[in-house]
TrEMBL record:
Keywords: ATP-binding, Nucleotide-binding. ATP binds at residues 171-183, 228-235. Pfam families: Fic. PROSITE patterns: FIDO. Residues 138-287 form the Fido domain. This is Fic family protein. The active site is at 224.
């Protein structure tokens, strides 16, 4: 990789004072801070060395092939991938919950704060991808709406959900002031201009999609336009760029599952980007996409086998029957309740159909759900966990990372 292949960030020292004095004396007495000023990238050219360029081409080609073969015919695969991606993207931010609690949160039934956060991350990612797909554009408004989805239900963050920050933030170091930090993003008054520049870059069509998605993500993390949620929205932006460029028309492979396996290297690659080397994060994203794509082929085969096995366990229900349609739905919604099934299958009462599959061993009742019963499809949920574990295992075998 070249020593520098991208414009490095510059830095400027600015006055700083806490609005509300708190924390240790060193934080309360801090009077200046050095902030990073990312380059404006809307019109920058990118020249990659041949090995990295080849990685991006091969990665995008493999993704398109998976999408061509399974994208149109396996809605369940995309749903499973999205959930795996949202779960592991949240894990990078140390937000974790059980799959059962996550499913309750998706259904809008009582769940813990971490599960609600993971469900909100899923909703935010789905929105950003959907809007990029339907409008063929990345917009600042879509980014704001996705952030609103992420924090709209958060008791402490709802007031700033869907709004760019108006204060100085920082990454790492003290909780009370930008001291001993890993990164201090640009001043709040520059955020809107930087985001519009980023959006212009993300809407270009003259760059390799994987490289474009990687740079858009790294630039977003440098801008850090929100008080919180930048990592999850930034990783959702990767998929939005890939969908807009039609690198994938239907699927969102779980790239975050590979990144979480190399959390420190991932953050170091973002540091390389700030220093003027984009190739590190591009190579990491290309390798992560390739691994996620390869393992998703195995998941597609597993889902097909699970669905066929269910048919036998349920007595080979007639195509078009409520039981048959519920088995199809379970590959998309492996955690469900009676209202969801009734709505999706247009049934007056879904309980009897659900209980029949419970007796067949296809579904199990979730614990702690007597008042609002929830059922789980363990075979599909096991594949969610297995897909993530396989991707992480393969990612750990690779030497990619900072120079």
């Amino acid at each position: 990789m070249t020593d520098t292949d991208w414009a490095p960030h510059t830095y400027v020292t600015r006055p700083y004072r806490q609005r509300i004095p708190r924390g240790p004396r060193a934080d309360r007495m801090l009077r200046e801070v050095t902030v990073a000023l990312p380059p404006h990238i809307a019109d920058l050219d990118l020249a990659l060395e041949r090995p990295v360029a080849a990685m991006t081409t091969a990665s995008a080609g493999a993704l398109r092939h998976l999408d061509l073969v399974h994208g149109r015919t396996m809605a369940g695969l995309n749903h499973l991938q999205l959930r795996t991606e949202a779960i592991d993207s949240s894990k990078i931010e140390h937000v974790e919950a059980s799959l059962a609690d996550y499913g309750r949160a998706l259904l809008g039934i009582g769940a813990n704060a971490s599960a609600v956060s993971m469900a909100s991350a899923t909703q935010a990612m789905e929105r950003l991808i959907r809007e990029a797909d339907t409008t063929r554009k990345i917009t600042s408004d879509a980014i704001l709406r996705a952030h609103g989805d992420l924090f709209g239900r958060h008791p402490d963050e709802a007031a700033t959900a869907g709004r760019f920050r108006t204060v100085q933030n920082w990454v790492g170091g003290s909780d009370y002031a930008p001291r001993d930090t890993l990164h201090v993003p640009p001043p709040p008054e520059t955020v809107v201009d930087y985001i519009e520049d980023l959006v212009a870059f993300a809407n270009r069509d003259d760059l390799a999609p994987i490289a474009q998605a990687a740079i858009a993500h790294a630039q977003f993390e440098s801008i850090h336009p929100f008080i919180d949620g930048n990592g999850r929205i930034g990783r959702a932006l990767i998929h939005a760029v890939l969908r807009r460029r039609r690198a994938s028309r239907h699927l969102a492979v779980p790239i975050a599952s590979a990144l979480v396996a190399h959390r420190d290297r991932y953050f170091a690659a973002l540091g390389d980007y700030r220093a003027g080397t984009a190739a590190t994060i591009i190579a990491m994203l290309a390798a992560s996409t390739t691994i996620a794509t390869t393992e998703s082929w195995k998941t597609a085969e597993a889902l097909d086998g699970i669905r066929r096995g269910w048919g036998g366990a349920a007595g080979d229900p007639r195509p078009g029957s409520a039981t048959y349609r519920l088995l199809d739905l379970l590959t998309e919604e492996p955690i469900l309740n009676a209202p969801l099934v009734a709505e999706r299958l247009r049934l007056e009462d879904a309980t009897e159909t659900i209980e029949a599959l419970e007796r067949a061993g296809v579904l199990v009742g979730a614990k702690r759900s007597r008042r609002s019963p929830v059922w789980l499809a363990p075979a599909v949920l096991g594949e969610v966990e297995d897909l993530s574990a396989r991707i992480q295992h393969q990612a750990r075998q690779l030497p990619y990372g900072p120079r």
